[in-house]
Specification:
Structural class: mainly alpha
Number of strands: 2
Helix content: over 70%
Largest sheet: 2 strands, antiparallel
Length: 559
């Protein structure tokens, strides 16, 4: 089959069409390369003629696809896609990448202004949304990487541009999805896949940008996200509510971060602010999801043909996912609010202690007890939630008892509890934490006092017992002066060990120092005070102490 035509177009199908000006048509089997769309009327006619030739072959090759007319909007979109693709080339300088993205935005704006159908308008807005998102992400990465070298004014200007770009992302996504809702069902932009792709892009962009920035407090981060929430409208099928829910959850996370930072810095006022504000985004998120359910229910009543049912199914799935997130974040909220309440009680107790010790001429005991009650309330709030707050409160109670009420032993129990809790915070090093050092020092002082008291009490008891053993102790002293053998004979005969197996078995020959040394050593084990304390009463323990003293002195002469 021959065909006179101009150009060099390759058709899809089993064969590859090779033709030149005024040449014959030849088919050869191979993989077809990409097809270039015809540009002129003459070229379209040639392609149609070639398609008829291919169909006439009876199955050897498939027909060429119908040629879609090229519009100015599609051409502008193609140009914008080329700029966008070139901007994502690796290794580009930020200024070059930003220039290509701005060229892409300009092309997409041209495509939007020249669009003649709903499909072209939605596609132009969607592509513009992608470009705005790339600009925001590129600026965010560049600013964070250069945070140490940038001036404060430059950094704030860059972040203001990022906020503007994200606002444009939300606006263009809203336009695209709104047009998709009213588009013809046969149009590709009306499909759920196209809408989900738009929503997914917005979620990805918003998720990456909803973080704390350099030179920005947690409160400023929460305020910025809240402005985005207010600028995000709600659509019928819940597309943008997905984004709104993400922003609300990010707002909650910002308040969580604010609480943690404030607790670490002991800023009770800021901690209370974030703890009070974190409940609002959760309530707004729940209302947002319930509004989707109500709209879907109404659509099902108005249109029982199935469209509303699909909306209801979509909304229920969204509600289940959001409920899970809400439950998790509600638990986090309760934990953080308990931490803040514990910190508030500690602050109140410190204020009462300061008033009791500095604002009056004498120590106000009632205020000290009130402070202890505040610290105990802090322990209750922080138990099983915040180990550090609980340990800090226990340390404060111990100091109140030991330093102000002079009940050191009672205070030592709370200090020991604080130290035990601090050690469970491993691998954190606690050697430089003030309350841990204070508790450790208080425990050491309390133990020294306890040991001194125990020693004094034991000495008093021993003195009372010795008063009843005056004769035995005097006789023991005189025998020890008579010689080593006489000492051993006396103690084993007059005061034999309680254990029947502990007996003197041999008599040392005269002058046999080695045998005497071994017997003295054996006697030291038989009359050791620690063993005697387990075997007899107080008298036997004191008597063994004296025997051990004289036998030990005799044994020392052999060293």
């Amino acid at each position: 089959i021959g065909c006179c035509c101009r150009g060099g177009y390759l058709l899809h199908g089993v064969g590859r069409v090779l033709f030149t000006s005024y040449s014959c048509l030849i088919f050869s089997v191979s993989n077809p390369p990409a097809v270039r769309s015809p540009r002129t009327e003459r070229e379209r006619v040639c392609v149609c003629e070639l398609s008829e030739c291919v169909r006439a072959l009876g199955g050897m090759a498939s027909a060429a696809p119908a040629v879609r007319p090229t519009t100015a909007s599609a051409t502008a979109r193609t140009r914008g896609n080329d700029h966008l693709r070139r901007s994502r080339t690796g290794g580009l300088a930020p200024i070059v990448q930003l220039g290509r993205l701005e060229d892409a935005l300009s092309a997409y704006n041209d495509a939007y202004s020249q669009a003649v159908s709903q499909s072209e308008v939605a596609s132009a807005r969607k592509n513009g949304m992608v470009a705005h998102g790339d600009v925001a992400l590129m600026l965010d990465r560049t600013t964070r990487a250069s945070a140490e070298t940038m001036s404060v004014a430059s950094m704030k200007s860059s972040f203001a541009r990022i906020d503007f770009e994200l606002t444009e992302v939300c606006a263009t996504a809203t336009d695209a999805l709104a047009i998709a809702e009213t588009a013809d069902p046969s149009d590709p932009v009306a499909s759920d896949a196209w809408k989900c792709r738009v929503i997914g892009i917005v979620l990805k962009i918003a998720g990456e940008l909803c973080t704390r920035r350099p030179l920005e407090s947690w409160r400023e981060c929460g305020g910025r996200i809240e402005r985005w929430v207010l600028s995000t409208p709600a659509l019928t099928r819940g597309g943008i509510p997905d984004v709104k829910l993400l922003l609300l959850f990010r707002l909650f996370d910002a308040h969580i971060g604010g609480v943690a930072h404030a607790v670490e810095a002991a800023d009770v006022h800021a901690a209370r602010h974030h703890a009070a504000e974190m409940n609002r985004p959760l309530l707004d998120g729940e209302r947002c999801v319930r509004s989707i359910i109500l709209r879907a229910d109404r659509a099902d009543l108005v249109d029982p043909s199935g469209v509303g049912g699909a909306d209801l199914e979509f909304a229920i799935g969204l509600l289940c996912d959001a409920k899970t997130e809400l439950r998790i974040r509600s638990d986090d909220m309760r934990l953080e609010q308990a931490r803040v309440a514990s910190l508030s009680h500690i602050e109140a107790g410190d204020r009462l202690l300061n008033e009791a010790t500095h604002d009056h001429e004498t120590l106000q005991i009632e205020l000290v007890w009130m402070a202890i009650d505040e610290f105990r309330a802090s322990v209750v709030q922080a138990r099983d939630i915040d180990i550090e707050s609980e340990a800090k409160a226990c340390s404060r109670i111990g100091r109140s008892f030991g330093l102000y009420l002079k009940l050191k032993q009672r205070g030592a129990k709370y200090h020991e509890r604080a130290v035990d809790l601090g050690r469970t915070m491993h691998p954190r090093v606690m050697d430089d934490v003030p309350w841990f050092l204070e508790a450790t020092q208080a425990i050491a002082e309390a133990r020294q006092v306890q040991e001194a008291n125990d020693t004094s009490a034991r000495s008093a008891r021993d003195a009372a017992v010795r008063s009843t053993l005056i004769v035995e102790l005097a006789h023991l002293k005189s025998v020890s002066e008579s010689g080593k053998d006489a000492l051993l004979t006396h103690i084993y005969d007059k005061h034999p060990p309680k254990n029947a197996s502990h007996r003197r078995k041999t008599i040392a020959p005269d002058g046999d120092d080695l045998s005497m040394k071994q017997q003295l050593k054996k006697a030291l084990t038989h009359y050791h005070p620690d063993t005697a304390a387990k075997e007899g009463d107080e008298k036997w323990r004191v008597l063994c102490q004296e025997i051990y003293k004289y036998v030990g002195a005799a044994y020392e002469t052999f060293k």
